[in-house]
Specification:
The structure is a single chain. The protein contains one helix and eleven strands, in the order ββββββαβββββ. By secondary structure, the protein is mainly beta. The chain is globular. The termini are far apart.
């Protein structure tokens, strides 16, 4: 699997804090301010886009040792939306994602490497359709603020590409490209009382 470009959806876990912390901090993903969008080629003519509204997980950052950071992002497959109800049900069905049997997709990192102030690389595993494969992704920091409602909020965006055939998702289906590009953008919140 080639290295995949991930713009900082997962980046938050390694973002630089203005106030250094001696211990790792864990941020809970805010599903209201997070998105997952996918793109797949159709008949070599155009692209079909869709999104998943159900995103959860956590991001851990260690300011003194970014390599100890952790990314764990889960997508609820049943929240898929391509702006066509009939197509949504087909894609969630047994011909494609088999959402009843495999209701989630997940990326979980094993290690994180800081490439620059805003660029990071995570090595981990991606699970889709019940199949888990190693995945290396790059992501880019977007920002970090002290949240007006309390705590610290971090965020970023990430884009990566997987092959359906690697995950046994309708590999022989005519008309659709094997490669699927997924963009994940998250905001996550850390509060001392969490």
């Amino acid at each position: 699997m080639k290295n995949l470009r991930l713009a900082a959806a997962f980046a938050p876990l390694c973002l630089t804090r203005s106030l250094l912390s001696a211990a790792p901090e864990t941020f809970k993903i805010d599903p209201v301010h997070s998105s997952a969008i996918f793109k797949i080629g159709h008949n070599n003519v155009g692209n079909i886009y869709g999104d998943f509204s159900g995103i959860s997980g956590s991001l851990t950052q260690d300011m003194e040792a970014p390599e100890n950071g952790k990314i764990d992002v889960t997508i609820d497959v049943n929240t898929l939306d391509t702006n066509n109800e009939k197509r949504d049900e087909h894609v969630k069905g047994p011909d494609y994602l088999s959402a009843k049997q495999f209701p989630t997709m997940n990326f979980s990192s094993d290690s994180v490497k800081k490439l620059s102030d805003k660029e990071f690389e995570a090595i981990g595993k991606f699970t889709m359709h019940g199949v888990t494969k190693p995945l290396t992704v790059k992501f880019t920091k977007i920002g970090e603020i002290e949240d007006p409602k309390g705590g610290t909020r971090i965020g970023g965006e990430s884009t990566f590409t997987v092959k359906r055939s690697d995950y046994d998702v309708a590999a022989s289906n005519a008309g659709l490209s094997d490669e699927v590009t997924i963009t994940i953008a998250v905001e996550a919140l850390h509060k001392d009382e969490q």
